[in-house]
Specification:
With 433 residues, this protein is α+β, with helices and mostly antiparallel strands. Helix content is 28%, strand content 33%. Strands 2-18-22-21-20-19 form a six-stranded antiparallel sheet, with no helix packed on it. It has a six-stranded antiparallel β-barrel with strand order 3-13-16-15-14-17. It has a five-stranded mixed sheet with strand order 8-7-5-10-11, with no helix packed on it.
């Protein structure tokens, strides 16, 4: 039974104090609300699992990169490299393996100048035109020369008229002397009359000779004026092609540069059928070249064709500065693609009388390397390296002859890297052979 004690009015109500006070608890505060105020913490196992996953991922990436790098450096993984290549050159049967470089030159060429001094009034050609021997290329002003020619022709006419007048006098003097001689035998004329007739004949003869000499002098003067007039024409000395135009209409030209305002030549012309190849051969190799020896010529301007030729001359003197001797090669299959002054590479064939030994190829000396005890060259076929075993001959300058399974279209790597292997993908950069 609970007893309540009432407090007097106006006095505060007192509550018994216990030794261990208990904080009051609100009855309207539920556990669900407390749960809603709590912070959700992740499980301690989650970060541990995430850390291990990242470690495995990075480890796999590193292993792949190391594997790729190892394959790259060992050659197991094909990788693209850039190499310099040249086309192999087929040597003529029984070739000596000797190669030389030179240029195409025209043996017949000239700079055409006028024989007279004057101002150009006409030029009838341009660079590249073909001209015939005797064709008028240019002409100088020639009004003064035409006047001299007319004057000379007039003098010829005067001299011939004088000759025509002197001849009848000679004929009459001759007949008169004959009559006097007849009468003298019959004593119808005196000796004095005979002497006078003889003197008259001599004077008439001298007059005719003088008139003939005058005619000859006038003719010579006329021919000189004709030549002077012809010298105002500049003509082609032979069939050829105009390669340079050195003067224009209005310029003063002369045989020599007599003034700073005058020029010498009008055009330059060459005969395209007279071209040959001049190649320089080292003194130490000249014994492998003889007149009549076959040769194969490759022009940089015509890379897909090999011209055939033969040695027409080995010069009797050497170039002291270069240590070379000039060899002149004639082109046997000359065509319009052969242009003077283009560079050429000559590969000499067998010496006359040498027995043919088989097909050979010429490659740069640096292209031959040793692999597994064999001499090989590295070819590029369809963008990949192909090792080909070859037999090497005696070096000839910067090239060396080789025997092997090569084709005319093969391209050989000039200086292959040591680590370059068969099957490697390469990017080629072509050099001139």
């Amino acid at each position: 039974m609970v007893h309540f004690r009432s407090e007097p009015e106006g006095q505060p109500m007192t509550t018994p104090v216990s030794a261990d006070p208990v904080p009051p608890r609100r009855q309207d505060l539920h556990d669900a609300d407390l749960d809603g105020l709590s912070i959700a913490r992740p499980s301690a196992q989650t970060p541990r699992r995430t850390s291990h996953a990242w470690r495995w991922t990075w480890g796999a990436v590193i292993v792949v990169l190391v594997t790729l790098a190892g394959s790259w450096f060992t050659g197991l993984l094909p990788h693209e490299v850039r190499v310099d290549v040249v086309t192999v050159v087929r040597l003529p049967p029984g070739g000596s393996g000797l190669a030389a470089t030179g240029y195409v030159v025209a043996q017949r060429q000239a700079s055409i100048a006028s024989k007279a001094i004057g101002r150009l009034e006409f030029i009838g050609v341009k660079v590249g035109d073909r001209v015939k021997e005797g064709q008028v290329i240019a002409r100088l002003e020639h009004a003064d020369m035409e006047a001299l020619l007319q004057q000379a022709q007039a003098k010829v006419g005067v001299a011939r008229a004088q000759l025509g007048a002197a001849k009848p006098e000679l004929e009459e003097a001759t007949l008169h002397l004959e009559r006097v001689n007849t009468l003298l035998t019959k004593s119808f004329v005196t000796q004095a009359e005979h002497d006078m007739a003889s003197a008259r004949l001599r004077r008439a003869t001298a007059a005719v000779r003088s008139a003939e000499a005058a005619v000859a002098a006038a003719e010579a003067e006329r021919r000189n004026a004709t030549v002077q007039l012809e010298n105002t024409n500049v003509r082609a000395p032979f069939d050829g092609i105009i390669v340079k135009k050195l003067a224009e209409v209005g310029e003063v030209v002369s045989p020599l540069n007599v003034t700073v305002r005058s020029g010498g030549s009008v055009v330059s012309i060459l005969d395209p059928t007279s071209v040959v190849v001049d190649a320089e051969v080292s003194e130490s190799m000249i014994h492998r070249v003889q007149r009549g020896q076959s040769a194969e010529i490759q022009l940089d301007a015509v890379p897909n064709h090999r011209y055939q030729g033969d040695v027409m001359q080995v010069m009797p003197v050497a170039d002291r500065a270069k240590g070379t001797i000039l060899v002149r090669i004639r082109l046997l299959d000359l065509d319009e693609r052969v242009r003077p002054d283009v560079s050429a590479k000559v590969t000499f064939g067998a010496l006359p009388g040498t027995q043919v030994t088989g097909e050979e190829w010429s490659v740069p000396s640096g292209a031959v390397v040793t692999r597994a005890g064999h001499s090989v060259v590295l070819l590029v076929r369809e963008g990949r390296v192909v090792e080909t075993v070859v037999q090497v001959g005696a070096p000839a300058g910067s090239n060396v002859p080789v025997h092997g399974s090569l084709a005319q279209s093969d391209e050989v790597i000039v200086a292959p890297p040591v680590d370059l292997r068969d099957g490697t993908v390469v990017t080629i950069q072509r050099r001139q052979p």
